[in-house]
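Hi team, as promised in this morning's meeting, here are the two structures we talked about. I've kept the exact order from the run log so nobody has to guess. The first one is mostly here for context; it's the second one we should focus on when we meet again. Sequence first, then the predicted structure tokens.
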Amino acid sequence: MQNQPQPVTPEAFSRNAVEAALKIGLLFVLLSWCFHIAKPFINPLAWGVIIAVALYPLHLRMTELLGEREKLSATLITGLLLLVILGPCGFLADIIGENVRELAGKLQQNQLTIPEPPEKVATWPLIGKPIFNFWHLAATNFGEAVKTFAPQLREASKWLLASGAAAIMALLQLLVSVIICGLLLVNGASGHQLALAIGHRIAGHKGEELTELSIATIRGVARGVLGVALIQALLAGIGFFMAGVPAAGLLTVVCLFLAVVQLPTAILLLPSIIYVFSSHETLPATVFMVWMLGVGAIDNVLKPILMGRGLDLPMAVVFVGAIGGMIFSGIIGLFVGAVVLALGYKLFLSWLKQTSIA
């Protein structure tokens, strides 16, 4: 004869409920504590994972070429990344510091002079006359020109200070991310197994497929972002050098930076077009304008193609996920948004198949 289940008394129920609540509360406190401790490292860790996933195929090739010396390959890749980041930053800092010192010296000695604008600037449609008037005022009475735009200059200075502080923090985070990337590359095989185990735990038999999809999506977005940025910077550099724009090399580096962080390159290209129109004949200036406008718009064509290549997904899903993710959570959202939308799309298709079979 089977034992009948004993009824739970109110006292036992209350005791079990209190014990469960205490356990859940302690678990929540522990998780919250862990989150706040790890919070400063979440962004660098996420970037380190993204960079490591994107560069892992290169790491495997270099490891093979170096005689299966995995640590040496990871060290070389990490050193190259640090050089790529710190080299242009040091170059820019040196140039900016020199220009600031020169400007401060001229201001102190009252030697700052601005050349008169060319007459043809005034003939430009719509914007020509205002630019000519302000340029002329700055050339003849710099102090009055500054007073005219004093409120805007104060706001601009606050924005520049805030942007400079944010840029320094972003650079430090990026350096930490590169170091994390190097550590992850050394342990790439075990990291991949861990990702597969997590995927299997969350999604069962579809875990491996979704994990591989996430990896492929990150690499596709990296191709779309970095590949297009390099192409844009190369084409813009050709235009700068051919037109004889001052500091063409520096402008090329700035263009690469803007393209990588997904800022519109037009904020650099449009002023260069205005400069070329003010200093060159109409025909070469028009050719330069057409070239630069094409450079600024080329990412709209290449980015969807490079992002979706090699993925068993519609290009629209990856592209919408990347752009929507960037709008939602900044540049890291390019990768996170694309991965999340790709996973959601695959899970939705799986649910549709199961529904139709049932």
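And here is the second protein, the one for discussion:
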Amino acid sequence: MDLSTNALRGAFGFLTRLPISQQADDWEAFLSSPWTFPLVGYVVGWLVAIPVLLTDYLPATTIAIAYPLAVYAVTGIHHLDGVADLGDALVVHGDLEQRREVLADTTTGVGAILSVSIVVAGLAFGGLALADLRALDAAGIVLVAEISTKLGMAVMASLGSTEYEGMGAALTGAVGPLGVAVPILVAAAMVGLTWPTQIAAVTAAGALLGTGFTWLIASRHLGGLSGDIFGAANEIGRVAGIHAGVIAWMLL
């Protein structure tokens, strides 16, 4: 496991569009360092939470637009492309090889349009719901959802597998099952940074279930993980975590 700044730079390069300079060996260092996933989640979480911290000053509909804009300004849309490719692959009436071909295809089909629309709408409606919360509560949910989603990706990298070559093989082949221990410890610190604890727990569970669901779908229908699946898990986990947190805030 690489604990260098190279690994962290590589993680920021893969997970965000922040202007952080990259070096030639950053990618290789990142591949063997799943602990960087949740650590980047802390930074991304606070940055994308800025709009929901303004709930006392902006109308709810503006928050609903500003929150997704903040997410994609910080993280880029390349992970959303994974949602599109997954959507197209899952609507294919064919065998495993045909679904894989569609997953790698650059053509945009109805499955892509529908899946991306659902995810973006889910994020916007999540922002709308967050606007009804106290600003710090809303920001806490956003932060926990982001960290937990990145933890889910770290678990996928440490425990997942794939049957074909590509980015998925690179991400899952660099570390073994024990690699998941440090990411869990890094993410556990979010308990002390969010409030209240039970809402944070439900938010984290929702995000992890979202990434886990994506992982399950890929394992059953696509032969394992790919770069597109990691991207889709990132997007689906975030939406699931936000909505789980808002529901918990209403009920608890």
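Starting points for discussion:
Residues 135-159 form the longest helix (25 residues).
The chain has one domain: 5-251.
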